[in-house]
Amino acid sequence: MSIIKELWLAIVVVLVVAIIGSVSIYGVTTKHYVEEQLYAKNIDNATMLALTLSKLEKDPVTLDLFIMSQFDIGHYSAIILKDANGAIISDHHQSFQFNQNSPRWFANYFSPNLEPGVAQVSDGWSQYGTIYVEADTGFIVASMWRAAYRLVIGLLFIAFLAGIIGAWFLRKILRPLDDVVYQAEAFQNMRFIKSKVPRTLELKRVVNAMNFLAQKSKMVMEKENTRLDLMRHKTQFDDESGLANRDYFILMLKGQLAFRDTQGINCVFLIRFTVEQGFLRIPANEKQTRLRELASAINGVLQDNHHSFTDSRIARLQKNEFAVLLTETHDASVIAYAFHNICTEIFCNPNDPEIFQSVVKLRADDSVSSVLMRADTMLNEAQSSELAYPSIESELMHNEPIEEERAWTEVLTSAITHAKVETFNYPVLNAKRQVIHYQAWAGVDINGQLRQSGYYTHWARYLDLLPQLELTTITFLIKYINSNKAQSKFAFLCSEQFLLDNEILAQLHYQLNANPNAAKRLCFEVRESTATRFPEAFKQFCSTLKVKGCEVGLKRVGESFSQLINIQELGLDYVKIDSGFMADIDSNRANHSFLQGFCSLAHTFGIKVYADGVNRSDHQELFSELGIDGVVSHIEVIEHLLDD
Amino acid sequence: MTFYKFALFCLLLVALFVSGQRTESSLNIEFDILERSVSTNYGADKASVVNALADTLLALKNESIEAKLIGVNSFFDEHVEYANDPDVFNEKDYWATPSELLGHSKGDCEDFAIAKYVALLHLGVASEKLRLIYVKARIGRSRMTQAHMVLGYYDMPSSDPLVLDSLVSNVLPGSQRTDLIPVFSFNDSGIWQPGQVNQTSNSISRLSKWRNVIERMKQEGISRRS
Question: Sorted alphabetically, which Pfam families does this protein's record hold (chain B) (predicted)?
Fold first, then answer.
């Protein structure tokens, strides 16, 4: 029973007891008072009568007449005159007159219990007899019942008023309790949120204690993140430009080539400025300022065009070269021109270096060196021919004809309408090779061929159909889970557009509400970069989905984890480390200590750490040493395996 | 635990209350209490009168009814002087208890009558045979009358009563007392009757003089005990 119900029960019990108590006390007191009064009246009347009768002629008829007249006119229930030997001389009485308005039980309990008034009648010197007088009590019961009835009604009215005031007061008292319970439950889900301190002393103490804990965990999170960032910066960052260094970029590129889809349009942009003008020999701090200016300009372009690609990596590849890796890109040439323009704008002074750029698309059979070599060759050619615009690989250059756009619209709309989606499920395994959940990748049936997300994502995003398409996939998953008796969970990666589309989110919530069991078996994840860019939306996303029993995770984690604000308040279930960190895990010592620190931090907040992009099974020992809880397998599980 | 203690306490209280309401039958004078009451209020020398009363009543215990009437009558005539209420109690009409009567050694007609009534009841005379009688008394041979109270003993309900008068030392039948005209008589029936719950004992202020004096007598050790 909830506390509000219990308090109400207590109030009702108190009121009932108070009403019953006061009515009983009223009844008993009144009865006693009436008895006292009437007994006095009885005695006085008897004495009066006896005195008068003593003076009268002792003729039975006269006596009877006298007594009868008294009885008939006055309020008596009995007047009896007995002679000295106890024989009745005159007896007038009426049976108890029960008033129909008062209930029988009330009369039984509260009828005055009276002794008759007794007095002696004498005849000269000798005794004549004794007179007994009893007053009528019927009318008293009736009036007592009326008064008791009024009392009950009055008390009920007061109780009702008290109830209204009590309800208001209770709500006022208990409102902060809801917040405290919410906070406590959030803690239980490893969400270390702070809440407003209520006024009630006990609740205040609880909230203060919990807020202290929340503050403490926030401090731990921030401190550890700072430490990890420092560690990472040492090996993966270029101090001058504030960007990632060559090693890091190679790792990311390696991860991309090894583990990501090969159907999508993923491209590398290489931006070079010439050194002949002596830029590298200018004073160090000036050089740093200008390099940082350039870096932030390139980042600015990425920020402006974030709807044109899924993921971006930027690094300083050489002293005079910047590289950008974009995945699932739409209109790479537009971005390339934006880079070129912004860079030439920054280097516009007479003695400033010239800017050259090349853009290459990653091919399915590419290796890191082949990609970089291709880009380098194109860049060299551009430089030697002094090309004043980016040199873009022909595969990226076809300027999307209207027909193609129409065809894509048609294909994707029909996929959404007819739910022509499926999922590719990759198991996430723990150290004992048991399935934690399946990583579900969307696949869309395009012209009779099942295509992975890389193939269509940039178009879906361009046509604003991506959120809808993802929702269709989630719907498919829910249906699949409902029809599938196995208890496995499915993780689905949501795009930035999905996260920001309130209408689609509302539909998702509706579906999850309608399928509470399926909801408990779904894990929603977004990219770390998305969460960092839209912290409020992500927070909202987490809290809503957690309530429905879903798990929430982050994917491609590593680069900007420390920039996630108040991550301890989100209640994340897991994070998946970017495949880039795993690419050379057996050789990269520096990465080990970073991962170790990262895992222990995550575990402090109840967050599991899974590794993405692991294709070897001989790292088990290393992984458990680092604290990694599971790995995303690289082998797709076909449906009949899932059914086991 | 506290609740049980409380319940037990309540039960005990109820038991006491019930036992306090037990029936009262024969009247008894507790001379210890009476003596203490007199000696505290009026001095130790007055307490000797109480002892004398106790001795007298003890001696009369097994005597005939006439001897009892005469003995009681003469005891109070001997030890108490007739005086009017305003002189003794500073009140116009005050009904004194036996202790007050013996303490002051003074009293008027009703004080005598009450003390004798109580003494006779103590000796085992049935209360329905005794009545306090308001009489109109003619003083001497004059035609002047005054209100007076005597105690009457009725051998039979309809018989001529023997009258114990504070002004006359003899115990005479009513028919011989031509100087007295009976007006009204009463006794403690309806007040001290066995089996009766005393309903007025809770509010002294509302008591009649007669009930008041009965209540006060109880304090002084004169009450009906079973």
Answer: Peptidase_C93
The C-alpha atoms of residue A65 and residue A104 are separated, in whole angstroms, by 35
Alpha-carbon distances of A297 from A292, A302, A344, rounded to whole Å: 8, 9, 11
CA distance A2 to A511: 30
Calpha distance A443→A440 (Å, rounded): 9
Cβ of B184 and A54 within 8 Å?
yes
Backbone angles phi, psi at A504, to 5 degrees: -65, -40
Ramachandran angles phi, psi of B219, nearest 5°: -65, -25
Q: What is the pLDDT of residues A375-401, one digit of tens each?
A: 999 999 988 888 888 888 887 776 666
Is the CB of A43 inside 8 Å of chain B's CB atoms?
yes
ipTM of the complex: 0.70
Distance of CA A332 to the CA centre of its chain: 40
Q: How far is CA A288 from the centre of its chain?
A: 45
A513 burial (CB, 10 Å; 0-12 / 13-18 / 19+) is: exposed
Q: Please indicate whether, in this complex, the C-beta atoms of A124 and B182 are within 8 angstroms of each other.
A: yes
Q: Where are the beta strands (DSSP E) in A506-568?
A: 522-527, 551-557
Count of Cβ atoms closer than 10 Å to residue A386 Cβ: 9
The domain ranges of chain B are 24-220
Query: Does domain B24-220 sit in CATH 3.10.620.30?
Result: yes
Antiparallel, parallel or unpaired: β A490-494 and A435-446: parallel
Which of A126, A130, A132, A137 to probe the B interface (max B CBs under 10 A)? A126
Residues of chain A numbered 81-100 and touching chain B (CB < 8 Å) = 83-85
Task: Report the top-level CATH class of A3-161.
Answer: alpha beta
Q: Identify which of A35, A51, A130 has the shortest CB distance to residue B199.
A: A35
Q: Which residues pair with B180 in a beta bridge?
A: B137
**C-beta of residue A306 within 8 angstroms of C-beta of residue A496:** yes
- The identity of residue A221, as a single letter, is M
Distances (CA, A) of A644 to A205, A474, A486, A631: 51, 22, 7, 21
Q: Locate tokens 């989110």: which residue?
A: A505
The residue count for chain B = 226
The DSSP H or E segment spanning A625 is helix A620-626
pLDDT tens digits, A322-357: 999 998 888 888 899 999 999 888 888 877 888 899
Question: In this complex, do B206 and A36 lie within 8 Å of one another by their Cβ atoms?
Answer: yes
Max alpha carbon distance in chain A (Å)?
A: 161
Residue A630: CB atoms within 10 A of its CB come to 24
Overall fold of domain A402-642: TIM Barrel (3.20.20)
Q: Tell me, yes or no, if the two domains A3-161 and A239-397 fold the same way.
A: no
A115 within 8 A of B197, measured Cβ to Cβ: yes
Question: A487-508: per-residue pLDDT in tens?
Answer: 889 999 999 999 999 999 999 9
Domain ranges of chain A: 3-161, 239-397, 402-642
Burial A146-175 (b: 16+ CB within 10 A, else e): eebeeeeeebeeebeebeeebeeeeeebbe
Q: Indicate yes or no: CB of B206 within 8 angstroms of CB of A47.
A: no
Helix (H) or strand (E) holding A441: strand A435-446
Q: Do B186 and A119 touch (CB under 8 A)?
A: yes
CATH code: domain A239-397 is 3.30.70.270
Q: What distances in angstroms separate CA A263 from CA A362, A443, A463, one per listed residue?
A: 9, 12, 18
Distance in angstroms (rounded) separating the CA atoms of residues A382 and A398? 19
Q: Is A381 on the interface with B (CB under 8 A)?
A: no
